[in-house]
Amino acid sequence: MKSLSGVERQRLFVVLALIPNPELVFLDGLTTGLDAKARRKVWKTLAELKQQGLTIFLTSHFMDEVEALCDEICILRKGRTVFCGTAEEAKQKCGCGQFEDAYLMLSDEEAKEE
Q: Which stretches in the chain have pLDDT values below 70?
């Protein structure tokens, strides 16, 4: 496994998760550490799986990834749900043009001036 590239390892993890032909999978930080090209390959794979009817629960710290891949999102603050809906609904709720800005506002993680 050490000879595999980052994207090859991530693809292997996805394949292993799919071997039992599940109806849903949980994926945590799937693209962490990957370069932009590798991330997009993983995104394409996930989009194809989603089109085939697989339900995917994805946790990610990359808001562009969340916005691109997720039909519905749930934002937590200190373990409690503070928002459930679409990325577009989050932007509208916060009056933000970018989902990342809405995420930071909703999760109360916006950088505070010291």
A: 1, 110-114
Q: What is the pTM of this model?
A: 0.77
Look-up of token digits 């937590």: 76
pLDDT value of residue 92: 97
Give me 103's structure tokens: 């995420």
Q: Are 83 and 104 in contact (CB under 8 A)?
A: no
Q: Which candidate, 58, 50, 60, places its Cα nearest to that of 23?
A: 50
C-alpha span between 8 and 75 (Å, rounded): 29
Distance CA 53, CA 103 (A): 27
Residue type, 51: Q
Facing residues of 14 across strands?
none
Residue 31 pLDDT: 82
Largest CA distance in the chain: 51
Give the Cα separation of 76 and 59 in Å (integer).
11
Going by C-alpha positions, the residue among 62, 63, 75, 80 that lies closest to residue 107 is 75
